[in-house]
Amino acid sequence: MLVLTRKPQEKIRIGDGITITVIKTKGSGVRLGIEAPADVPVLRGELLAARDSFVKTETDEASVPDAATNQAKSDSEVQFTRVKRSRVPSVLPNLLGEPGPLRAMMAGRATTGA
Fold it and tell me: Compositional bias of type Polar residues: which residue ranges (predicted)?
């Protein structure tokens, strides 16, 4: 693993078509901008893990004789669509299969009135 230190607005180039820009740092979080060709999937690690577990569950339920056929099937099901920011709270839990920690925290705040 290559570990680099970058300041805001500094860039990292990967190959000819991928550029990662550090947009902002805040506390322990970092906001990144990623420029990549449309045919290169860019997923956060937790979404990739959720997708992989979904594909594994789907594989366990359906008996597919050829692993290569199954891999091609899961790759062809990936779609990228733009979701309006106002719809993210309703779309993301369906993608992850669970409400997630932020949703639980916000629900707790709403009930306690904090």
Answer: 68-79
Q: How far apart are CA 109 and CA 103, in angstroms?
A: 10
Task: Report if pTM > 0.70.
Answer: no
3-state secondary structure 38-101: CCCCCCCHHHHHHHHHHHHHHHHHCCCCCHHHHHHHHHHCCCCCCCCHHHHHHHHHHHHCCCCH
Domains of the chain by residue range: 8-36, 82-114
Interatomic CA distance for residues 17 and 40, integer angstroms = 9
Burial class (CB in 10 A: 0-12, 13-18, 19+), 55: middle
For residues 56 and 74, what is the distance between their CA atoms, to the nearest angstrom?
10
